[in-house]
Write a structure and sequence with these properties.
- By secondary structure, the chain is an alpha/beta fold.
- The chain folds into 3 domains: 376 residues, TIM Barrel, CATH 3.20.20; 60 residues, Oligo-1,6-glucosidase, Domain 2 (Oligo-1,6-glucosidase, domain 2, Alpha-Beta Complex); 58 residues, Immunoglobulin-like (Sandwich), CATH 2.60.40.
- It has 15 helices and 20 strands.
- The protein has an 8-stranded parallel β-barrel.
- Helix 5 runs parallel beside helix 7.
- The two termini are 25 Å apart.
- 51% of the residues are buried.
- The structure holds alpha-D-glucopyranose (GLC).
């Protein structure tokens, strides 16, 4: 029997470098800090790491604003540190996936600086989306697109004499100008960036906003007329032309030995559209955000799981499950919300109704047991193995997410899910940094959740994750085939996979356990019943 490629059932742990572990004491995590704590990740029992951006950056969007893709920001270390990280991962049998941010650069990137210095209509400007404004004096933006972070999607330049000039497009922060992927130099530039990192041994790329690189020709207004012709999506999302780019990249990856992968961050709702990114000559996997965004409801999960598996199978790709990341409220907090628990929507601040942490943790453990028992690959976000909630009462004065600023404080932003990790309950800064400094304050609840407070403690979230990951691997759950079981009643998710019966009790009432099966593990202590908001794996 030939072995399936590693990525088809891999569990991949996301490291958000500024919040993982700080070695130099400045309060920001760094690459030497990651290396120092790598055994924690290894011992958890995952297969690979995805590291969020560590490239040179003015840090207007926490490093997703890259000013040089081939150097490391001093905040995080040096290129030699990054090379040492690749080596340290490989020495432990872990793969390393790095982040690639191709939709936009930082406004401090050499390409954008050259574009600003050049005249309208110049080849330098053609690498981005510059356009004259509408209105009598060009005072209106070229179209009605808005920024994901709030406000206009365009900013108008002012020339050296203070005269208004052209506009440039930014779907995110004003310091993140969108690249023009119709320009061959942009494509070639990214070919070089891919090769630069592949030559350094990385095992793949997580591709940031992979569904937005190509814009509809002529940059039409995003309105009802357009969406009617385009089948719902806006002119900046999921354009068919984007697939040529991934075919081109796939050819480059395939020149390298080992199975190097592309994983799409594409918020594309229709599973059949998302699956197009996973055709055999394109990307390998894509995050399934419908699963992350699902309400805590048996029918919703079942529909999502079935539909996703079917759509991906049609193109021969595995499905990739995810519950938390650096852009979404952690699933402990999301599932502890009183209204529509689980649904991915606005973050929570100190003035909002607070989630129920105990309830959220119960559900989050059950949801993770569901995630890890589904066929395909899975992503874990640093700290979820500790059952961390978001910092939902973070005082506004600490906020750094551009969404908070660009939305005029309407959006709380994502800082709450990006808090530095607690390693040692009794150390300053909970052991995140040798000086005790942390770039965002940690909430009081993190102390009892520190790694050293949970390690070796039977029934702790950390020990449960270790156990689930070991079982998942031993039982081959990632490589199995799912069959639904309908005999457990309403509000219960039950399925067989690789000889394991999985039951997730979303019903709101305890459920008698089948007598003829042996319990392998559960998210809560069991008696004769499976409590509500709990999950069990049975053999
Ligand atoms: C992705 C990243 C997010 C970032 C955005 C712009 O969604 O995950 O953190 O702000 O792209 O690069």
């Amino acid at each position: 029997m030939t072995q399936a490629p590693w990525w088809r059932d891999a569990v991949i742990y996301q490291i958000y470098p500024r919040s993982f572990s700080d070695a130099d004491g400045d309060g920001y995590g760094d690459i030497p800090g990651i290396i120092a704590r790598l055994d924690h990740v290894k011992d958890l029992g995952v297969d690979a790491i995805w590291c969020s951006p560590f490239y040179a950056s003015p840090m207007k969007d926490a490093g997703y604003d890259v000013s040089d893709y081939q150097s490391i920001d001093p905040l995080f270390g040096t290129l030699a540190d990054a090379e040492a990280l690749v080596e340290a991962c490989h020495a432990r049998g872990l793969k390393l996936i790095v982040d690639l941010v191709p939709n936009h650069t930082s406004s401090q990137h050499a390409w954008f600086k050259a574009a600003l210095a050049a005249a309208p209509g110049s080849p330098e400007r053609a690498m981005y989306h510059f356009a004259d404004g509408r209105g009598e004096h060009g005072e209106l933006p070229p179209n009605n697109w808005t920024s994901i972070f709030g406000g206009k999607g365009w900013t108008r330049l002012v020339d050296a004499d203070g005269n208004p000039e052209q506009w440039y497009l930014h779907l995110f922060d004003v310091t993140q100008p969108d690249l023009n992927w119709d320009d061959e130099r942009v494509r070639q530039g990214f070919d070089d960036i891919l090769r630069f990192w592949l030559d350094r041994g990385v095992d793949g790329f997580r591709v940031d906003v992979a569904h937005s690189l190509v814009k509809a020709p002529g940059l039409p207004d995003d309105d009802a007329d357009y969406r009617m012709i385009a089948g719902g999506q806006g002119p900046m999302w999921d354009q068919d032309g984007v697939h040529d780019i991934y075919r081109r990249w796939r050819r480059i990856l395939d020149e390298y030995s080992g199975e190097r992968i592309l994983v799409a961050e594409a918020w594309v709702d229709v599973p059949e559209r998302l699956a197009l990114y996973l055709r055999p000559d394109e990307m390998h996997t894509a995050f399934n955000f419908r699963f992350l965004a699902s309400e805590w409801d048996a029918d919703a999960y079942r529909e999502c799981i079935t539909h996703s598996l079917d759509a991906d199978e049609a193109v021969g790709a595995p499905t990739t499950w995810v519950l938390s990341n650096h852009d979404a409220m952690r699933h402990v907090s999301r599932l502890g919300r009183r209204e529509r628990p689980g649904v991915h929507e606005a973050f929570i601040g100190p003035d909002d109704e607070q989630p129920d942490h105990a309830l959220g943790l119960r559900r989050a453990r059950a949801a993770t047991m569901m995630e890890l028992s589904l066929p395909g690959s899975a992503y874990l976000y640093q700290g979820e193995e500790l059952g961390l909630p978001d910092h939902t009462t973070l005082p506004h004065e600490y906020r750094q997410d551009p969404a908070w600023f660009q939305s005029g404080h309407e959006e709380i932003g994502r800082d709450g899910c990006r808090i530095p990790l607690p390693w040692e309950a009794d150390a300053p800064g909970l052991g995140f940094s040798p000086t005790g400094r942390t770039w965002l304050p940690q909430p009081g609840s993190y102390r009892a959740l520190a790694v050293d407070a949970q390690s070796g403690v039977e029934g702790s979230t950390l020990e449960l994750y270790r156990r689930w990951l070991r079982l998942r691997r031993d039982l081959g759950l990632g490589q199995g085939t799912l069959t639904w079981r309908d005999d457990f009643g309403d509000g219960v998710l039950a399925y067989e996979n690789a000889g394991v019966l999985v039951i997730v009790n979303v019903s709101g009432a305890p459920l008698p356990l089948p007598a003829d099966r042996e319990v392998l593990t559960s998210s809560e202590p069991l008696g004769a019943t499976l409590p509500k908001d709990a999950a069990v794996w049975l053999r």
